[in-house]
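Example record used in the benchmark description.
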Amino acid sequence: MTSAELLADSFARIREVVHHVLAGLTREQLTARVDSEANSIGWLIWHLTRVQDDHIADVAGTGQAWSDGWSARFGLPFDEAAIGYGHSAAEVAAVQVASAELLTGYYDAVHARSLAYVRTLTDPDLDRIVDERWDPPVTLGVRLVSVIDDDAQHAGQAAYVRGLLPD
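Model output (structure tokens):
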């Protein structure tokens, strides 16, 4: 297995969880929160998708799917660059997703772009410095693992919240 295949497999596993979590959810279920400070399924999946979209577009040197009409379809009350990092409880509540299908569609668009990019990578590519604001500077490999880790954690949180929803 190549590094590119390993990365693609990791992103594919996240996609499986996202699809499982979102399957058949109503708008009310997407916005349900276990308490007023908790994240909803809709926010968790939106956020993990925004992070992936933002970070992969940055390292790939491409535009984000969000800017290709997804932002307008969601109609959220945030700056278009918002990815959910540091959102308050009120901002989490403001993520009112119209449908699970909308969220799945955006996720799948980002997933396709992510796979197309990581499948082009070779092992030496992973050593490229992509962020010099840190000490040590962040390599492409570290950034991709960070995205995968963040996405997997948020997808797992969304799965947990789904399990708490009444039947």
